[in-house]
Amino acid sequence: MKTKIYFFSAILLFGFFFLSSCKKDEIESDTTSSEDNSLAENMFEDVFKVVDETLKSNDLDGNKSYIYNHNYGDCGIVTIEPAGRGVFPKTITIDFGDTNCVGNDGVSRRGKIITTITDYYRNAGCVITTTLDNYYVNEYKVEGTKTVTNEGRNEADHLYYTIEVSDASITSPEGEEITWQSNRTREWIEGEETTVLTDGLAGILDDVYLITGSSSGVNRFGKSYTITITEALRVESDCFWISEGTIEIAPEDKKIRTLDYGDGTCDFNATVTIDGKTHDIILRGKRR
Predict the structure, then answer these.
(1) 242 CB contacts (<8 Å, ≥6 apart)?
(2) Around 143, how many Cα atoms within 13 Å sit in the side-chain half-sphere?
(3) Do the domain assignments include residue 287?
(4) 3-state helix, strand, coil in the chain (%, to 5)
């Protein structure tokens, strides 16, 4: 009987250490919050790029419907109201329709982006508020409100904007939901000198911004996390992905980890470092 008890105890002890080891490994290698935050970052950067290109490539003084035909193809019809030069606020509706339409950037979209603007985009004090109506990007449903305020010029003589995202959620094609909110500063470091009127499409695609600030959210498994940008995120108008920069992620009940977006290459690769160990991850949200 003693032999059996000792043997059974040994099995229990082994099982305890085995499960503890597995749990520890899982905690130290979990990149869920990193992946979900990057998804939210990319989705709302994409919303900004759609609005940004629309504001820069359309005549805000008219009351016309345009086919949105630059980086995002001829998928969206743009309507600007009311008419009249210098008449604000204006409402800009970008309607991608009820079925998916793939733009020149390879991204499928459907639904509406609705933006209210209080002044011309480059004027200090301009406030741009964007909401989404049944809006999908590559079958991810994107919801929330994005408010962009032109704060004028900084010490480097660059235009900069404060950006708040509130009540945001993203639902995957599989039905997994994440929530997200952020407070950021966006500095326009390249491309201000060119416009679509002087340089065509190149006058939009050469725009580059640096993003600083913080955010927080709840990942697809219901765990909360907070984010701090430690090296400014580089966002280029002609790239779906964030191409450079690092953030620190503090997930609920887990160790702080660092996400590195890379060296400026436009791709879906990133790394997450947890407790000195680096893991490669594939950013979510776009067809590959």
Answers:
(1) 38, 41, 42, 45, 233, 234, 235, 261
(2) 10
(3) no
(4) 20, 45, 35
Contacts of residue 170, defined as CB under 8 A and 6 or more positions apart, other chains included, come to 39, 40, 43, 140, 141, 142, 143, 177, 178, 180
How do residues 25-45 score in pLDDT, each as one tens digit? Answer: 443 457 899 889 889 988 998
The CB-side HSE value for 45 (13 A sphere, CA atoms) comes to 26
| Bridge partners, residue 143, by sequence | 169
Q: Which domain covers residue 136, as residue numbers?
A: 47-239
DSSP alpha helix (H) spans, 178-263: 196-199, 202-205
- Tell me if 15 is assigned to some domain: no
The tally of domains found in the chain comes to: 1
What is the torsional sign of CA 270, 108, 180, 115?
positive
DSSP code for 49: H
Contact 101, 75 (CB under 8 A): yes
Residues 144, 36: Cα–Cα separation, whole Å: 16
Backbone angles phi, psi at 49, to 5 degrees: -65, -40
- How confident is the model over 149-201, as pLDDT tens digits? 999 999 999 999 999 999 999 999 999 999 999 999 999 999 999 887 778 77
Q: Which two tokens stand for residue 256?
A: 């702080």
In a domain, 185, yes or no: yes
For residue 27, what are the CA distances in angstroms to 30, 89, 278?
5, 49, 14
Q: For the purposes of burial, counting CB atoms within 10 Å of the CB of 234, is it exposed (0-12), middle (13-18) or buried (19 or more)? A: buried
Whether residue 131 is contained in a domain is answered as yes
Number of separate helices (H) and strands (E) present in the chain: 4, 15
Looking at residue 285, the DSSP 8-state letter turns out to be S
pTM of the model: 0.82
